[in-house]
Amino acid sequence: MPYLGNPAVDRFTATKAASVYSGNGSTTAFTLEHSVGSDEDILVSVDGVIQEPSVAYAVSSGTTLTFTAAPSSNSGNNIFVYYLFRTIGTVAHSAAQNLSAGTGSFTGDVTIGDASAADKKILFDGNAQDYHIGLDDSTDSLTIGKGSTLGTTTSMAIDANGIITKPLQPAFNVFPASDQSNIAINTAVTVVFGTEAFDQNSDFASNTFTAPVTGKYQLNVHLQLNALDTAPSLYQLQIITSNKSYNLTLAPKFASDPAYYGITNSVLADMDASDTVLIKIYQADGTAQTDIVADSNFNGYLVA
Question: What is the distance between the terminal CA atoms of the chain, rounded to a whole angstrom?
Fold first, then answer.
């Protein structure tokens, strides 16, 4: 069977045990016929006298033998180099080829990149989903994201000033598109939020926020009310989640119907993935005259 792959270095070549040179009284550097790894890998004799490694001579770049003092110019070959050990071949990994290994450990610093103007990343090659962490050179930021391409689906970015942003972190802020006039009495009225200031991760729709993952969500609502009635026994602002309703109750004791009144409720709510939350207001008895003004707002975000 023929030999496969690159042939081993000097596989069928007889190598010399020694090299001979002639001194001229001025030359100090000679080229070895075999590469060696250290000064002690050769035995050097000049005019029959054994030379001390690293004192009388030194080897650099594997094949350059340099004497401290130039050998004499005695007639004939008066310098003998005996190879005790030699470097047969070395293996160098090509920068243009991928490096693959099962496991590995490092005891020192690991540098990724060469200071050039280019993105650098570590790719986690998953079965169903890939992730990456790397330097986005265009923004000078460290990014963590989904997929194999840097910067396409970034979950977190740290810029040169240490500022952390989370472009996909669930967060929203919504407003009524118009006033909601003369709310009904003795019924929980859903507050209509028709305008989105922002809806990061697209979790808000049809007056409802849907939790994309299980976690703790900060929820805040402020209703600007006009034409409140003094007759009702209570107004109640409700943050209603799938798990629990968080109610703020106001028992009005106004001398006359207020033209303007603000009411606010907030909570850090425990929500499971796919749980929903919406805002309702309840007026017990009185006259259906209260308006929810478009200056109202509802916002929230995933805390943990």
Answer: 64
